[in-house]
Amino acid sequence: MTSVDFNFAEPIASSYDSVDAGMTTSPADIGSVKKSDFVVLNGRPFKVVEITHSKPGKHGHSKVHLVGIDIFTGRRHEDVRPVGHIIQVPKVGKKDYLLVSIANDGYATLLDEDTCQIRSDLSIQDSNTARRLRDKYKEDNGQIKVTVLKALGEEQIMAFKVID
């Protein structure tokens, strides 16, 4: 029998090892979540569109019924959880860029007006907003300012407007 060299004084894993360096989410009490807040359900960012609290039952705790819309896909999701539980809240950021061009492969070239940096890593998804954006870009009526929404490491163009 061989001995295994193991130090019982050192922890195997700590909670700090699993935390993302970018801190894309933060914990919150589910009882404090309100309508129009952002939450993480099934690993996706959702905007809460409806929330109801139920009374405690004979053998249980009061529950929270959440209805949310995925901020990137628009899909609806419902979830029921006890009031005392913790839910993750994503850090959602919005940033405006000037649209420089749209490549044939579907990637947009964007200019950050604050830092004057150009990025070409954002793919335009096949959605209603993307189709309208392509049509406006082909019309060439002026500069287009796009709003990019970022959450949980995912980015997408959510809105745009033509500026003169």
From TrEMBL:
What positions does the domain Translation initiation factor 5A C-terminal occupy? 91-161
A family per Pfam: IF5A-like_N
Q: Which GO terms describe its biological process?
A: positive regulation of translational elongation; positive regulation of translational termination
The answer to whether keyword Protein biosynthesis applies is yes
UniProt GO molecular function: ribosome binding; RNA binding; translation elongation factor activity
Q: Which residues fall in a coiled-coil region?
A: none
The record ties this protein, via Gene3D superfamilies, to: 2.30.30.30, Nucleic acid-binding proteins
Matching InterPro entries: IF5A-like, IF5A-like_N, IF5A_C, NA-bd_OB-fold, Rib_uL2_dom2, Translation_prot_SH3-like_sf
Q: How is it modified after translation?
A: eIF-5A seems to be the only eukaryotic protein to have a hypusine residue which is a post-translational modification of a lysine by the addition of a butylamino group.
Keyword list (alphabetical) reads:
Hypusine, Protein biosynthesis
The family note in this entry says: Belongs to the eIF-5A family.
Q: Relate the protein's function as given in its record.
A: Translation factor that promotes translation elongation and termination, particularly upon ribosome stalling at specific amino acid sequence contexts. Binds between the exit (E) and peptidyl (P) site of the ribosome and promotes rescue of stalled ribosome: specifically required for efficient translation of polyproline-containing peptides as well as other motifs that stall the ribosome. Acts as ribosome quality control (RQC) cofactor by joining the RQC complex to facilitate peptidyl transfer during CAT tailing step.
- Protein name in UniProt: Eukaryotic translation initiation factor 5A
Origin species = Rotaria socialis
